[in-house]
Amino acid sequence: MGTVKTAQEIQAMREGGKILAAVLDEVVRRVAPGVSTLFLSDLAHERIFAHDAKPSFLGYQPSGSASPYPAALCVSVNDEVVHAIPSAKRMLKEGDIVGLDLGLWYGGMCVDMAVTVGVGAVGATAQKLIEVTRQSLSRGITAVRNGARTGDIGFAIASYVEKNGFGVVRDLAGHGVGYKVHEDPLIMNFGKKGTGEQLLTGMTIALEPMVTEGDWHVTIDRDGWTIRTRDGKLAAHFEHTLVVMDDGCEILTEL
Ligand code: MF3
Ligand code: CO
């Protein structure tokens, strides 16, 4: 069951969400050919501390995972879908697409956000993949209101993505967020309208469609973290944290 947050807790997440959006925006501005993925993570780490917040992914270890996540930012390039570990040796190059996923603690609460951007000029398919993924998150957000079910969101996301000829990753999902990095409910990016857990006003959730250029199947690297497409084709990822309201929702991770 998802947990309903108090007005004070939501206010902390609203403030944390604005910090997160500002920090991620600063990171996006530094994306360029020749920049290492670790540089971006170190920048995110430093900017989070400058805002009196703390990174929530650094040291995060979900039950069943082999090792804690070692960085502040997930930097997933091209066929890497999510959770790729930043490295000083991994340089971005013109035409890459890069997913930037960041979370932080502020005022005792955590918030979560991701965007995908092109490095310099990217190909037409890559650009369309980014736009469809961004728009699929908007479709999902439109389905959120008091009384809606998680399947309504999944249906909104997957039907839009598949109509555009792309795939929806099945192995990872959106989630409740706030007291912990991941809380109930699980919010899959596909589903059937009218099924799944009901959302209630005051629940805080993260929606995060992961969309593939080709087949949606993924594999995990030997590092225990990096998720990549099985067919080696591109993937994109967008995420917002939001609070459910009577007649819609408020996006918390916005400037
Ligand atoms: N936004 C990511 C998710 O919900 C956060 C991953 S935590 C990390 O899956 F530690 F893996 F980075
Ligand atoms: Co998330």
TrEMBL record:
GO CC field: cytosol
Annotated positions binding a divalent metal cation 2: D112, H175, E208, E239
Annotated catalysed reactions: Release of N-terminal amino acids, preferentially methionine, from peptides and arylamides
Pfam families from the UniProt entry: Peptidase_M24
Sequence positions that bind substrate: H83, H182
Cofactor: binding comment: Binds 2 divalent metal cations per subunit. Has a high-affinity and a low affinity metal-binding site. The true nature of the physiological cofactor is under debate. The enzyme is active with cobalt, zinc, manganese or divalent iron ions. Most likely, methionine aminopeptidases function as mononuclear Fe(2+)-metalloproteases under physiological conditions, and the catalytically relevant metal-binding site has been assigned to the histidine-containing high-affinity site.
EC numbers, comma separated: 3.4.11.18
Cofactor: Co(2+); Zn(2+); Mn(2+); Fe(2+)
GO BP of this protein: proteolysis
Keywords for this protein: Aminopeptidase, Hydrolase, Metal-binding, Protease
Domain of life: Bacteria
Entry binding sites for a divalent metal cation 1: D101, D112, E239
Protein family per UniProt: Belongs to the peptidase M24A family. Methionine aminopeptidase type 1 subfamily.
Function: Removes the N-terminal methionine from nascent proteins. The N-terminal methionine is often cleaved when the second residue in the primary sequence is small and uncharged (Met-Ala-, Cys, Gly, Pro, Ser, Thr, or Val). Requires deformylation of the N(alpha)-formylated initiator methionine before it can be hydrolyzed.
PANTHER family: METHIONINE AMINOPEPTIDASE
Subunit-structure text: Monomer.
Name used for this protein in its record: Methionine aminopeptidase
Organism: Candidatus Azambacteria bacterium RIFCSPLOWO2_01_FULL_46_25
